[in-house]
Amino acid sequence: MATIRDVAKLASVSIATVSHVVNGTRFVEPATSDRVRTAIHELGFEADGIARSLRVRKTSTMALIIPDLTNPFFPELATVIQQEAVRSQYDVVIHSTDVPHGNSEELLGHYLRTIRQKRYDAVIYAETLSATPAVQQLLATGVPVVVIGGTAHPEVDSVYIDDYAAARDVTAWFVAKGHRAIAHISGAAQMSSSEERRRGFLEGLAAAGLPARPDFDVAGTFLRDGGYQAMLQLLACSPRPTAVFAANDLTAIGAILACLDSGLRVPDDIGIVGFDDTMLASTYRPTLTTVYHGQREIGAEVVRLALARIRGEFPEERQKIIVPHRLVERQSA
Description:
There is one protein chain. This protein is of the alpha/beta class. It folds into 3 domains: about 5-55, 434 Repressor (Amino-terminal Domain) (Orthogonal Bundle); about 60-160 and about 295-325, Response regulator (Rossmann fold, 3-Layer(aba) Sandwich); about 165-290, 3-Layer(aba) Sandwich (Rossmann fold), CATH 3.40.50. About 45% of the residues lie in helices and about 15% in strands. The protein is built from 13 helices and 12 strands. Helix 5 packs across helix 13.
């Protein structure tokens, strides 16, 4: 494999000049810069190889990879992470894998190339589809990785809430309020948060001695439109549910809109509970009863873990941190 020294020799410049051209740290005469870039191209020398050759130890930058910028939960979480990182003089670069539009694998591949160039000191990764292969690819870069949500991975630090317990608590709360016809609109398929919330819902029904009706268990997408269509499907059931647990706040808002468009009142005719407690939950009308997802606690913990890994302060054993959840009661149920 070619080295930075090979590039410098072919271009008839110093190693420092190659570094300045690649990293943009100092002005280099255009003719000289062109020779360096030509040498890099001829030798097939990649920028991550230059980064390794220069032994860049620290960039004071973290990458945050999230699945969807349009879901309010993730921008709110990103804001906390950014605030926490800045306190330690770190910048955060946000990458979205755009899961709802099916671009996850392509975009993640693009971000991985950047991460391999050692432009970040750590990567914070929020669960997307096919999370386990993605974590393995991130680990292969050699950059410290902290995961938000998803299935706990033995080789990375992770921070999450207990989706199963939270969903079971919602179901028990509905039962305590006298509901017996309780339905669920799930999140995106193949995401562990969707699966765990659905499992908690079903086991909550079982604990209350209530049957799990297949027609009351409808697939959603974690998006408002998915919640709207799923709610229309539930309203076509006979008898229809009196309560619905939606997999997230966007789903719940879509479900409420479907009820209103169908001439039903929320919560008088049907109660709806969401998940995440995003800003929308308190500003939408009726205000949304929902599960607080721990944005503030998760954001603080992932930055703390990332910094500790960067500084080598933790033992080899990976950390698994579960932050508390709570049901926030408002007007929708």
